[in-house]
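Methods — Computational structure assignment.
A single polypeptide chain was analysed. Its primary sequence is given first, followed by the predicted tertiary structure written as structure tokens.
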Amino acid sequence: MISVYQKGDLVRIDGSFTDLVGTPADPVTVALKVTPPSGVTVAYTYALGQVIKGSVGAYYYDLSVTQAGQWFYRWEATGPSSQASDNGEFMVEPSSFVVA
């Protein structure tokens, strides 16, 4: 089931990486690519301090969603035993707040 958020929410995007036997492992490089409804993909990396490491093999990025519509993301990692990728998506609804 796809997650649904409201425009203006802060969305945590999690990425997990393991070695070949399933043990959590840190890749050499970790990147997150996010495509909002406008279609302009933005990349965030661990190397530049944008992606945060929570624990071994567990990374996240807190994204402020500013556009209503369907958002896509892709985690990409490289390393000798932890090369991986993962895709995801979520929806953002427009704000329903009405000023009287």
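Note: The chain has a mean pLDDT of 92.
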